Amino acid sequence: MVERYAISQYEQAAHLLPVRWQRLALQLPDWQKEQAEELRLRAGHPMTVLLPQGEQTVGKDAVVTQGDLELLCDTVTGYSRYAAAETMARGYITAKGGFRIGLCGTAVMQNGRNTNLRSLSSACIRIAREIPKLANDLAPQLLRDGAFCSTLIIAPPGLGKTTLLRDLVRCLSDGTDAVPAHRVSLVDERGEVAVMVQGLAQMEIGCHTDVMDGCPKAIAIPMLLRAADPQIIAVDEITQAEDIQAMEEAAHCGVRFVATLHADSAADLQKRPLLRKLHRTRIFEKAICIRITDRHRRYRIEDL
User: Fold this and answer.
1) Which helix (H) or strand (E) holds 245?
2) Do the bridges between strand 256-262 and strand 232-235 make them parallel or antiparallel, or are there none, so unpaired?
3) Number of CB atoms found within 10 A of residue 133's CB
4) Residue 23: which region, alpha, beta or left (left: phi > 0; alpha: psi -120 to 50)?
5) What is the DSSP letter of 195?
6) Rg of the Cα trace of the chain?
């Protein structure tokens, strides 16, 4: 069933493509469809599919045109690009079903700020997949005396931090036999966790979750404190000192956090200036470290 779901998600992503690329993408064998992570189109080059082994060319004799990229963008936005201008200015659009399409092209600058993209040069369709109940066994281990401990999800890029964060949000929000339901607020700055389309989450994030979509963490966290009265705030990818400051202020109000971080291990918290600053705040009590062993993801919980 898991394999069929993975293949189905790939095929849904392929159907976002212009017709001539759909046909080529759907010709891949099922084992590649199951493993595929992205479909990439670059003007002047063949389309590629990203597999765990790297990018593989799809249809060697066919070349992506700039018109293909424009058609992809028009189709996904329902020929209403103006409605997606805000996210296009940040380099992506979101398709129904939870697919995020990263875009590159010529930035349209006004007063030092990018307001749109024109002359598209490449597109990357990330194949959205959920892993139901991924966090169910991990979540109870993040409690101490019945209270959730603020937790960092730590791993290098590409090991599934966002996927785990999403399911952990769902688990904490809905609750289980071992974990009480919480009010969770999700800061989805890049639209990759809940994948909101017209106010509706395309991914399962739980029935007690409030989402602030497309907003920088430093701005969204105080907004959520006032608007949603969260018990837990979830954020994807801590990257700036302003993020840490906003989290520290919220933590003083009794809010707990779950967040992701690009790092090789918990030991990296002592190696980089920003991570040292994060470690000094003592916001986080536990870490989930993700590793690949024997081609399988392994999850290890550590005290910080």
Assistant:
1) helix 241-251
2) parallel
3) 11
4) alpha
5) -
6) 20
Beta strands in 111-183 (DSSP E): 113-126, 143-144, 147-148, 151-155
Taking 90 as the threshold, does the pLDDT of residue 168 lie above it? yes
Residue predicted with more confidence, 195 or 229: 229
The pair of structure tokens assigned to 165 is: 């964060």
Structure tokens at 116: 């749109």
CA dist., res. 148 & res. 283, Å (int):
12
Looking at residue 212, its amino acid is M
As given in the structure block, the two tokens for residue 294 are 């024997």
What is the tens place of the pLDDT at every residue in 99-127? 889 999 998 888 888 888 889 999 999 88
What residues contact residue 276 under an 8 Å CB cut-off, 6+ apart? 269, 270
Q: Helix, strand, or coil here: 124?
A: strand
pTM: 0.78
**Which position has the higher pLDDT, 274 or 15?**
15
SS3 track for 192-236: CCCCEECCEECCCCCCCEEEEECCCHHHHHHHHHHHHCCCEEEEC
**What whole-number distance in Å separates Cα of residue 242 and Cα of residue 46?**
41
The CA distances from residue 107 to 103, 117, 147, 149, 216, in Å, are 11, 5, 46, 42, 20
What's the chain's length in residues?
Answer: 304
Distances from the Cα of 35 to the Cα of 4, 7, 21, 295, angstroms: 11, 8, 19, 12
Q: Is 177 helix (H, G, I), strand (E, B) or coil?
A: coil
Confirm if 88 and 118 have CB atoms less than 8 A apart. Answer: no
Q: Reduced to 3 states, what is the DSSP secondary structure of residue 216?
A: coil
d(CA 133, CA 81): 36
The token duo for 1 is 């069933």
